[in-house]
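Quick one:
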Amino acid sequence: MNCSMDDARINYKLMRKCLTNKPKRFFHYTSQASFYAMFKDYTEEIVKCEYGKKKKYVTLFASQVQFLNDRQEYIEGVKIVSNANIPTTDLFESIFVTCFCGKEDLLSQWKYYGKDCGISIEFDFSKDVRLCWFALMKKENVEETPFVYWTSIRPYSVIYKNHETEFDRIRNEVRNNKFKDLSDKEAANIFVPYCKNSKFSEENESRLVFYPIKSELPNGDCLLTQLEYRESKGKIIPQFKCKIAYENNNERIIPVKSVMIGPGYNQHLVFNSVINMLEPDREKVRFFSDEEIENAVKYGQESKRNNIGIKDGRVTYITSNHIKISMSTVPMRD
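Output:
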């Protein structure tokens, strides 16, 4: 079930009032395949044009809340809502989530992404980060995909404890800001995506929550969210793409501060690959040999060729648009 733009704006406004814990760092752990999909449009824009001349963005993939890795957290959230005598039959089907960890080099996250070198992306939500996830369906059923530059967003921390008390607090806050006949539904839709078991608290997780949109335009066209599906660990997961960027001097910039290559096989090769993907200067292919990387670690020295060195104890490369690319120091085990 899709909601209108006005409904989504109300939900985001209520989130700002109800979810007060705002973390400062946001790391999205993912696989190499997902990393490539997230940055594919960005790298193609770099190839098409001179750096700084085009509008760029990075793509997030939001998964339906019922299909998150720990399904038990969703069940627990729904149980609390049901115990509050709120019908849940038609709730939560329109909620999609992207998850972030509060720690940049966390062993438990690297374990989840295996020995093929997972990747951690640090996002910057301190600026006015905006989103777009719409397709435009014209009256004659011709489909287009414009970049509709829409609302400002930010992640909020998940709720690890005192779930019943926190839901009551959120419901009371919503009742003070919305018509009572709708307030319980809105409170449930805000609470359930942020409910998580306290045993996962080391992750210091935060989440972006999205609502699929369908809005009729005055000319008869329709803006809508296009759902897709992906396979992951034996599940087919409903998802949609969300493009995000921030504005800087009338240019759209990706809100990415750093990328870390996890422990695993071919870590050095993945490090080189990511450098070449994200480096706007495409005049040459950069490749740092194992010897150069090992010398940087051994002697703490910078390479004579370009921007590789040691920062915060890790081998690090800084791209010409100031994205830090580094390698995890967590040891890999067979």
